[in-house]
Structure formats: structure tokens, C-alpha cells
Amino acid sequence: MSTTIQEKEASFVLHTYNRAPFVLVRGQGMTLTDSEGKTYLDFTSGIAVNALGHADPEIVAAVQEQVAQLSHVCNLYHTAPHAELAGMLCELSFADKVYFCNSGGEAVEAAIKFARKYARVVHGPGKTGIVAFSGGFHGRTAGALAITAREKYQAPFRPLMPGASFAPFNDLEAAGKLIGPETCAVFVEPVQGEGGVHIAHPEFLRGLRRLCDRYGALLVFDEIQCGLGRTGRLWAYEHAGVEPDMMTLAKALGGGLPIGATLLTDRVAEVIEPGDHGSTFAGGPVVCRAAQVVLRRVSDPALLEHVSAMGDLLVKRLGELNSPRIREIRGLGLMIGIEMDGEVMPLLEAGYERGVLLLNAGPNVLRLLPPYIVTEAEIDRLMDILAEIIEQ
Predict the structure, then answer these.
(1) What is the pTM of this model?
(2) Which CATH architecture has domain 79-298?
(3) Which residues are marked as active site?
(4) Where are the domains of the chain?
(5) Residues near 341 by Cβ (< 8 Å), separated by ≥ 6?
(6) How many CB atoms lie within 10 A of CB 20?
(7) For 337-371, what is each residue's pLDDT tens digit?
(8) pLDDT tens per residue, range 30-80
């Protein structure tokens, strides 16, 4: 079966990903199983998506019930699940309103449009500049790509959306030279994921808040990867005590189903009118039912304490490896980057052989994003495997 599926994929699926050499067919908790019956300990969560692990019984039950009741009607009609999910998100965050979409990239695109509409209505034409940061990743769609400072990603698709400029991450002085009267928005990840798991200094985020207030720009936090409990707080911005004007979410929110969200204050929402933006599938009943389960569970203080405790344990155990190959260990909660002295793809491939799934974040950073249900025993098993493959 594995060979047939891989051959079919090579023949018919556009080659935009280099996939691992096996076919996954089943998941349960922290474990995935391939078509040959081999099991893998999952320290990726589908890139920070499966926060509650695989086949969580409560998510499965909610999806099954909703599919049997009402699966799709489009946004021309009211449904209960999306209204209830929006209410939960607003009650648990800074936000007053929520726009639903289907992915993180779409959430960023919406935030770009909302920021430019807000600037035009409140300040007049010409205030269209967007400031973002080195190492940041906001997506691969046209607008999101323009504010993602990656030459490899941008070069084939130029000219990109105009108006974006970049400052070094965590350099408030440099940001201050770019943020000015023509800036409509500043986009920043409180913890960079794809950029190598770099944490924004609290004073850096506070300084961006002051600069945005000074020049009438909107502060946008991209918490697509670092939000929804991943760092041990429900929202990563809580670590700095700074609230944004907008925030983008996706990944963990749907429990494995595709959903994105852009959260807004009333100040921004007041300028958005029917027809300014939309999506056929956004806020569908099935994914919103799943997301209600996820949001209720990941906002539980007991689970957030567990995330912090397991993250601290992971960092401690990684330090105890005492390997000269490890240059630095960075992270918050269960979002951890291990900077190595060389490329990490061989570690990922060795992990496949030994039954563990790992991620990279750039060429030389090993990234750990396990489900929040990870246990000390599973961390012990990971450490045994890492000690072996790093030495080899």
C-alpha cells in the first residue's frame, strides 16, 4: 500500500512538499501508525495543530454529531456554532469581534485588508505601509508573503504587494525608524515559529504598542502557531502584558480541521462593512463545533499548567544531554527550538527510523511542538532517541 500511495502522489499531486517516506493511516493520542503498522511518537502535532492529540474522543463526538445535523449552509444564514465560538473567543481575549476564515494565511490576508481599510477611513488615503520583522513567517498567500521576510519564498513571485518594510526582530530602535505616519499596521509574532523559535522581548512588544499608538497604526499579533495555549498561557501576548488591535489564529483552533480567525477590537471592526471581505466555507458548523471543544479545553488552567510543566521538563532534559552539537535551547511552554551546529534534516530522518516525528525551523534548528497531552514518560522516550541520533 505504501509504495502505491507514494507513486500515485508523485504522479498526480503537485510537488510543493517533500514528504517523509511512509504513509500515515491512523492516530491515537501521541501516537501515529503507518500503513506497514509501524508506530511513531508525534512531537510535531501536525505543525502545532493537534494540541489535544489524535482522535480526541470529545472532538470526534462533536464532529460526528454536527455532521449528522448540519454540515454547511454558507454565511448567508445564521448558525449557532460560529456565533457561540466567536463569543468564546471574545470572552477569553482582548477582542470584541471575530472574522472567521479557513487557514492562517487567510487570517493574515484579512488582517492586512482590515488594517488598510481602517487607515483609509480614519486617517485618509496614503497610510498603507506595513512593518514586519526579520525571521517572521506570516504565510504564503500574496499579501502574507509580502510581509514574510524570506528571500527564498519571495523571489519567484515578485513583484509583491507594495508597502512592506522589515526591521530586525527584537530591535525596537530599528523598528522606530520604520514606523511612522504612513504606517497602517505592524505585524509581529510574540514567539516566532518558522523563524527558529525566537521569543519577543516583553519590552520590545511594549515599545511596538507605544509606537503604534503614537502614529495611529494598528498592532497585529500573529499567534497562528504560538497561540491557544502553546506557550503555557492561552495567548502568547499575555507573557508581555501587551494587547494588540488585531490577532490572527489558526492551527490548533480546529482540532485538526481547517479554520482561521482574525480577532479585532470594536475600534477596527466599526469600519468594516458587508462586502468588504468574505469566504464561502468560513465559520462552518462542523469546524466551529470542534473548535469550541478545543478552546474550552486549552483554556483550562490545569491544562495550561501541564503545558508549562512539560515544557520546563523538556528544556531541562535537553540541557542534560550536554551535547557539544547543541548551541542553544529556546522556547516557551511546548514550543521549543534546539539550535544545532549543523543541518538538522539528518536528525529528522533518523527520527523516522526510530519511530519519532520531529520538525525543523530553518536548516539548523530542531523544533519540538508536541500535543499538550504529552507525558513525562513520552519525554523520557524522546530523550533516549535524541541522545542516540545526535551522537550518531
Answers:
(1) 0.97
(2) 3-Layer(aba) Sandwich (3.40)
(3) 137, 222, 251
(4) 79-298
(5) 324, 325, 326, 327, 364
(6) 14
(7) 999 999 999 999 999 999 999 999 999 999 999 99
(8) 999 999 999 999 999 999 999 999 999 999 999 999 999 999 999 999 999
